[in-house]
User: Fold this.
Amino acid sequence: MCTVIAIKGARPDRPLVVAANRDEFYAREATGPRVLAEGPRAVAGLDRESGGTWMGANAAGLFAALTNQRDWHGPDRSLRSRGEIVTAALACETVADVERTLAAVDGRELNSFNLMFGDARALRVAYGRRERREVTVEPLGDGLWVLPNDRIGSPDFPKARRARALVEPHAGAPWPELEASLRRALADHDRPPEASLPTPPADSRFTAALVRELQALCIHTPAYGTRSSTILALSERGVERYLYAEGPPCTHPFHDVTSLLSPPSAPSA
Assistant:
């Protein structure tokens, strides 16, 4: 149950800041950020099971991050991997290019997804649903946005409101304060009362107790939990910071991997 937090337009020196947790089954093999493609150079984690990715950024200053739409009964394994959507977005150089790419996607060929993407100038969210061909794209203005495993603003995900409460007071603060607040939010274990959450259908793969556990921003269950975290700062110059924690952010440090976006220097003659 991934969560993506975006702060747009709070400060001119970093017009877009993004923080996200990747939640996944522990048994699903993946790597941390690596160079996945050139032209533009794209850096992202790699899902070894499907070959796609869940989040990344490129040298053109564009990012993309995907959350699976919650499905009480599980995904259809015969459909294409949703990770392909992020890979395709990171092959683009502009937000308009991503929009054109999404316009060619048939949403019925994938399990339902939510995609946030943008750069220092524009931020968008896209919703793909397997019962519809069209992938809808909506602009996001200045402010703080939280994308859970559903549409932005869904009342069924109080973890999004929790993230907003933790981060919003620091949205326009100097970078060290904002970065610290994002780290705290991503590592937060607060869970709402079970009675405040939607009741799973009788044939659901979720129990009510598990639904509550999944409402923490940083998840820990025996088989599933927060596997990694990312913090990005984007400006007109491109990606200023790409920080990554290889594990739950409550116990794992963030490392700066921004240099991966720069091609290696040519050897001197």
Remarks:
- The chain is about 15% helix and 30% strand.
